[in-house]
Fold these 2 entries.
Entry 1:
Amino acid sequence: MRVFELNGSTGKSMAMDDNVEHVIDAEKVKFFDWQELWRYLDLFYFFTWRDVKIKYKQTVLGFLWAVLQPLLMMVVFTFFFGRALNVPSQNLPYPVFVFSGLLLWNLFSTGLTNSANSMVNNAQILKKIYFPRLIIPVSSILVAFFDFVMALVLFLVLLIYYQQAVSWHFIWSWPLALTLTLLASLGPGCLMAALNVKYRDFRYVIPFLIQILFFLTPVIYPISILKYPLLQYLIALSPMYAAVELFRLPLTGAVLNMPLVLTSLIACLVLLFTGLIYFKRTQDFFADFA
Amino acid sequence: MKPILEVQNLSKRYKISHLPKAYLSLREQMLTAFRTSGNSSEEFWALKDVTFEINPGDSVGIVGRNGAGKSTLLKILSKITPPTNGKIISRGRVASLLEVGTGFHPELTGRENIYFNGSLLGMRRKEIRKKFDEIVDFSGVERFLDTPLKHYSSGMQLRLAFAVAAFLEPEILLLDEVLAVGDAEFQKKCLGKMENISKSGRTILFVSHNMQAISNLCTKGIYISDGRIDTHGSVGQAIDAYLKTGRVSPSRNTLLSQVQSIKPDKDFRLLSVSLHQDSTEIFGSAVNGKELEIRVDYELFNRINGFRVFLDVCDQFGTIVFRSFHDESNAVTFQPGRHSSRLKLPSNFLAPIPYDFKLQFGIHNIRMMEPAEGFVFGINIEHSGTYNKAYHGQHTAGLICPVFPWTIQHG
C-alpha cells in the first residue's frame, strides 16, 4: 500500500484564506456574499453538469428530447391555432411565430419548475454540507438553458426552411430576451424554492400557475388580438411578455409598444428582487426545515 | 498564538412542533394562526451558552449522550444551520464531513461522483484533477471507475466516498460519527488516515460514540451534556466525565420522557421500555445472578410483514457485545394494534460492568423506524451470580461472563 503525504502540500485556495477570520455571528445580517459565490463558481458548473447528465441517462433518444418536445408542441399549436382557428401571427408563418414564443416559454417554465423544486430535491445535501444556497436554484435554471440551446438549433433550421427574413440590426434583442427569460424564472423560482421548503403545498401550485401564465403570455397569439388596452396591460404584467416580444423583434420588425414592454420589465424586476430577498431571508433555516 | 477556533456564548433554539406531521402545510399554518399560540410548539435549547477555544493542531473529541447537542454544534460550526445567539471566529478553511458520501448519485459513474462530491466538499476542479489518481488508488475501485454507482456494492461506495473526503486539505476538519459505518477493516483504514491528518498538524473536531477511536485519535476532549459544556480538558478527563455522569441510572421518569421525545413515525410508536427481575420492575441497575427481562411495548398502525425489534448490548466504548432479534427463526407478520416483545437474558451471563442497551426497530430490508439512532439506555450490572464465586467474583474479565460446565479431574 502506498503511504500518502498529507502535510506540506497546502493548495493555493487555502493560502488565500490563511489570514482571514471567518465570523459566524447570530446578530449579523448581510445580503448575498458575492465574493463567496465567486469562490464557489465550480459548484454552479458541477450542479448543472450533474443534473444534465442524470436527466438524459438511460434514455434512448437522449438530447433529442430537448428538441422533440417543442417541435411536437409547435405542430399541435400550428394545427389548432394556426390552421383551424386562424389566429393572426404578426405576418410570420404561424410555425415560426409559435416556435419563437415556445422556445423562450419552455426555458422559463422548465427553469421555474426546476428551481422551485430544487431545494426540496437536494434536501439531503443541504442538511449535511454548507455552500451558498443560491447555487441550487441558479444551476437548476442553467439545466433548462441547456435544453434551450438544443431547441435553438432547431429554431435556426426552421428559419432557413421557411426562408424567414431576419433583420440583423435588431439582433441585440435576442441576448436581451434570453437574459430577461432567465431573470424572469430566477425571481419566482427562488421564491417558490424557499416557500416549498416550508410549505410543500407549493409543489402543487407550480404546475397550475405555469399553465395559467402560459395562456396569459402572448406565446400562441399576438397581444394585438386583445382589443381593450386594459387587458393588454394586464397581459403585460406577465414577466415573460417583454422577453417574447423582444425575441420576435428581429423577425417581425414591428415597432415595440414601449409602455407595455416597460410594464413587463418592471414586473420581472419586482419579482426578481422579491424572490431573491425572500430566499436570502430564509436560506439559513433550510437545513432545519428540509 | 491565536486560537484557530473561538466559540463564544453559542446557543441554538429549536421549536418543537407537537403536530404529528414532519413538515408544515399552509392550511395548518393558517389554522394555528387563529388558535392561541403556545400550546402547539415548545422551545428547546439544543445548545446553551457554549464557549470554548481550540488551538491550531489540536485534535478534539466531542462526547456526550444522544441528543446532548454534539451534532448541532458541528452543524453550526460548518454553517449548515445558524446559531440563535453567540459568535464563532474561525481562522482557517473549515471543511465538515457529517456524512460519508453526501451527494453521491446512483446514476453517475464513479469518476463523475468523485468530481461532484469533491466539489461539494469544497475542492476546486483543478485540485480534484490533481489528486484524482491518489483518490482512485486509495479507494481501490479503478476497474469500476466508469460504471454507474448503482452497480457498486455498498462497501465499494463507502470506500470511494471516504477516499474523496480523505483528500480534503482544510485547516479545520469537522467529523461526525463517520466511522460508524463500514466493516472493521475499513474502519481501521479510515482511522489510520485520520491519524495521519491529525499528525500533519491539522485541527480536528471529532464526534463519536466510539471511545476507543476518540482516545486513539484525540488529545483534547469536550464532554457535552444537555447542550452545555460539562468538561473541557484532556481526552481522558472528558471521557471519564462522560462515562461517570453518563452512567447515572435512568429512573422511571427519564426512561418515560426518553420514550416520549421520540419523533413520530408513520407505522410505529414505542409505548414503553422496562426491565424486570424477579417480576419486579427495576431501574438502572440489575444483578447478573438472576434472569433479566426486557419488555418492549409498542403500537403498529399498519399491517407489517417482517417487522423487527432487535437489541444491541454494547459496552461503554460503544462496541457491540452481541445483537439479538425478536424473530430469530421465522419472520413474523404483525397486525395493527399493540404488541409486546420480551427478551429474557439468562442468569450468569452478563458481566458486572456498565452496558448500554440499544433497541432498534425496523422492517427487514425496507427501512428503520424512529428513533433512527436507536433507543439507548444505560444499565449497571452488579455481581451476584456464581461466576468466580469461590473467590468473591473479584477478577472478572471480558464483556460477558457466562458460566460453563467445566470438569476438573484429579490424579
Entry 2:
Amino acid sequence: MKTVMIILSFVLISGYGANAQQVRNFVLNDLQNKSRSFDELKGEKLTLLDFWASWCKPCNKAIPELNKLYSKFQGKGVNLIGINCDGPRSVAKVAPLSKSLQIEYPVLLDMNAELMNDLNLSAYPTLLMVNSSGKVVWIHEGYVPGDEMVIQKEIEKQLSKL
Amino acid sequence: MNRKILFLLLSLSVFSPELRAQLSGQNLMEYQYGRLPDEPGSSFSTIYDRFLLDYSLKGFKAGGTLEQFYSPFETRNYTRLAQYRLHFNSKPLELKIGHFYETIGRGLMLRSYEIPGAILEDKSYRSRQYFHRDLLGFTAKFRHKGFTAKMLYGKPLINVLPPTFKEKDRRLDRIAAVQADYSIKGQLLGAAMMQLDNASGKSWFAMTNASGNIFPYLAYYTELVKNTGEFAITDFSSAASFAFYGNLNLSFDQFGLSAEYKNYNNFLLGSGFNEPPALVREHSYKVLNRSTHVLQPQNEKGFQFEGFINFTDESALTLNYTRAVNDFGRKSVFQEYFAEYSFSLKEKHDLKLFADWAQDPFKLEKDRLSSGFYADWKLGNTTSINTSYEFQTFNRSGNAAQNQVFSAGVSIKSKFSGYVITEWSNDPVIVEKGSKFWLGAGLKYKMNSRHSLQFFAGERRGGPACNSGVCYEVLDFKGVELRLSSRF
C-alpha cells in the first residue's frame, strides 16, 4: 500500500510541475555529414522540431503535410527541423528516403536518440514547437490525417501571441 | 537509502516555483492484473513506475531516474535509483558523467540505447524494467569546425539481468575508447581504439570508417572493426575477430535505393554491448515483425537492397531483398523478398498492401509467405476507422503452419483511439495441438500534451519483437493493463 501511495505521488507531481521543458543548443550532423547547431537553424519566432524514423509509417505520412507547412510559414519567422532517430539498423535508408519524400527543410541525424531522450520524448512522430527563447510551448504526439490543421492553428496561435 | 532518494526527489519537485521552472521530468506508471496464459497459478497485480527528474541551468543538466516494481513476490520487487547524470553542453564541448548513452560508428564496436516506452520482462526472473542499455562512467566530446574527438570510459549494462541483481553483476565489462573524425569537402574520415577489460582479460579493438558523397546522388559509408590485440591486423581468417559494414545510397528525385553489405566474424564483444547493423528489414506488420531474423555476430555475411519510389499522387512503392548467410559448420541461408504499396482512394482513404516471401532455416520456416492490408477509412475531418488483416503460412518440419491477425479500430483526431485485435495460429511451436485464438482490446486517450492513458484488456500474443532497431522477447499476457504517461 505504501509503495502504491509513493508511486501515485510521483504521478501527481508529474501533473503539478510547471511545463518547463527547454531546448538547449545541440549539434548534430545533417544528411551531408555537416555539423549543424540548433542556434544556427532555429526560426526567428518559432521552431518546429519533428522527431521521426524511416520505419514509422505515421511519420512518413506526416512529412508531405509538414513540407506544406514549412513552405507556408518559412518567411514568417518559423523554421522546421526534421530530427531523424533511425538507429544503425536503418539509418542507411534515411538519406534516399528523405530525398524521395522531397523533404525541403533541414534533416539532422540523432542516431543514438540522445536529443529525444534529453527532451524526455517517447513516441514517433513527436512535434515540438519551441519559442525564440528555447521554451517548448506545444507538443504533439502521433499523426493522423487532419492533424496538419491542428498544427497550423497552433502555429498561428503562437505567432499571434508574439 | 531509498527513502532518502524519494525524499530528495519529492522535495525538489514541490520546493518552489522558481526551482520548478528549471525542472523537467517524466513519469511512466503501468499497472497489470493478469498472468502468463501458459503458466499455472492465478492472476495477480503488479505495478511498475519510472520517474525521471532533471534540473537544467544554462549548459548544465543534472538528474536522476527512479525505477520501482512491486508484485506479491518479494524476490521480484525493487526500488532503486536506476540512473544519475550530470551533463554539460556547449558548442565545442560536451561532458557526461554518470549514466549515459553512446554509440561508436554504426554500433559494430559499441552501441547503447533506450527504447522509448518499452518495459522489459524476462520469463526467468519475472521482474519488470525499462528497456535500455546504458554505460556508467564518463564521456567527453570536443568539436572544432570539421573535427570531432570523443573519449569515454564506462561499464555497459547487461540488460537481460533485472535490477534485483547487484549492480556490479550487471556491469561486468569495462571499456575505454577514443574516437576522432574529420570532415572535409563532404567526406568524413574517422578512427577509434577501444580497450575491453573483463574476467577474460584485456583485449584491444581498432576501427576505421569513411563516409560521404561520391556524386550528389550517390553516397557511401564503410566501417571496419578488428580485434587487434589477439590477431594480426591483416588476419581475416575464420579464426580472427572482425566486422565490416558498408552501404551505398542512390537518390534520383522520387526514387531512392540503399544497398548494404555485412561480414561479421567472431564479433560478439564482452557481454554483448556491441550491435552491428542487422541488415534485415524492421517491419511494422505484426506477422513480419515477429518473424525477424536475429543477427548472429559470431558468423554472418549478407546484404540488403531496398528501393522506394514516392509518386506524385503521394502513393509509394517499397521493395526489399535481404540475404544473410550463417556458417556454423553447416551453412544456412536466410532470404526475404518484401513489397509494399501504399496509396489513397478518392484522396481520402489510405490503403497499404504488402507481400513477403522468405526462407528461414534458423527458425525452421520454409517457404514462408505473408500478405495483408492496412486501411484507414476517413469519416469527416476528425474521425477515421482503421482495419487490417495479415496472413502468414510456412512449412515447419513437414507441417503447414498458419498465423492470422485481424484488427479494427477507431481514431478521433490524435486524442482518442480504440481497437480490437484478434490473432489465430496453428504453429506447432506455439500450440502443441490444434490451434489457438487470442482476443484483446485497447483504448488510448491523450488528456493533453502532457498526459496520456492507455488501457488493454484480453490476451496478448508474445514472441520476438523489434522496436527502434532492437529486437527482444515479449511475454504472452492475459489480463488487464493500465498505463499512465506524464511529462512536465
